[in-house]
UniProtKB/TrEMBL annotation:
Enzyme class: hydrolase
This protein's pathway: Amino-acid biosynthesis; L-histidine biosynthesis; L-histidine from 5-phospho-alpha-D-ribose 1-diphosphate: step 3/9; Amino-acid biosynthesis; L-histidine biosynthesis; L-histidine from 5-phospho-alpha-D-ribose 1-diphosphate: step 2/9
Domain Phosphoribosyl-AMP cyclohydrolase: 29-103
UniProt name for this protein: Histidine biosynthesis bifunctional protein HisIE
Catalytically driven reaction(s): 1-(5-phospho-beta-D-ribosyl)-5'-AMP + H2O = 1-(5-phospho-beta-D-ribosyl)-5-[(5-phospho-beta-D-ribosylamino)methylideneamino]imidazole-4-carboxamide; 1-(5-phospho-beta-D-ribosyl)-ATP + H2O = 1-(5-phospho-beta-D-ribosyl)-5'-AMP + diphosphate + H(+)
Keywords per UniProt: Amino-acid biosynthesis, Histidine biosynthesis, Hydrolase
Top-level division of the source organism's lineage: Bacteria
Family the entry assigns: In the C-terminal section; belongs to the PRA-PH family.
Gene3D superfamilies named among the record's database cross-references: Phosphoribosyl-AMP cyclohydrolase (3.10.20.810)
SUPFAM superfamilies in UniProt: HisI-like
InterPro entries (alphabetical): PRib_AMP_CycHydrolase_dom, PRib_AMP_CycHydrolase_sf
UniProt cross-references to NCBIfam families, sorted A to Z: PRK00051.1
Gene Ontology MF: a single term: phosphoribosyl-AMP cyclohydrolase activity
Length: 143
């Protein structure tokens, strides 16, 4: 099996990791990993990150039990960022026990970041208890 080695030198030994739910593609968290953590993730199938505040490697769920089983890993075109597609076990990915770390709107209320596509009939705000999202309805189909 050929393993792509990310560019760990570019950012001081770390690469950014975006973690997404394998089935829903929801972004669960953003973290960092070092080379040893990346290799351990590939070997064990469990997400291993590097804490920039504690300056140490950690396996997701080692304390909380909220383990992430890695199903797929992709690397970006520059080799300095990864996406881990995971099965999230337990309460959630966030240390607050939320499913995702991205559950707060940056600017009060829901914001549509770009103009709706041509043919979009209406934009409906939809608030999930865990995540703020916008549902865009086009002729009765949710996009």
């Amino acid at each position: 099996m050929q393993v792509i080695r990310p560019n760990f030198e570019k950012r001081g030994g770390l690469v950014t990791v975006i973690t997404q739910d394998f089935m829903t593609k929801q972004v669960l968290m953003l973290a960092y990993t070092d080379e040893a953590g990346y290799l351990e993730t590939l070997e064990t199938g469990k997400a291993v990150y590097f804490s920039t505040s504690r300056k140490k490697r950690w396996m997701k769920g080692e304390e909380s039990g909220d383990v992430q089983r890695v199903r797929s890993v992709t690397v970006d075109c520059d080799g300095d960022a990864l996406i881990y597609f995971v099965e999230q076990k337990g309460d959630g990915a966030c240390h607050t026990k939320a499913q995702s770390c991205f559950y707060r709107s940056a600017v009060g209320g829901l914001q549509l970041m770009e103009a709706p596509k041509a043919g979009v009939k209406e934009v409906l705000p939809f608030i999930d208890t865990q995540v703020h999202t916008l549902l865009v309805v086009d002729a009765g189909c949710v996009m």
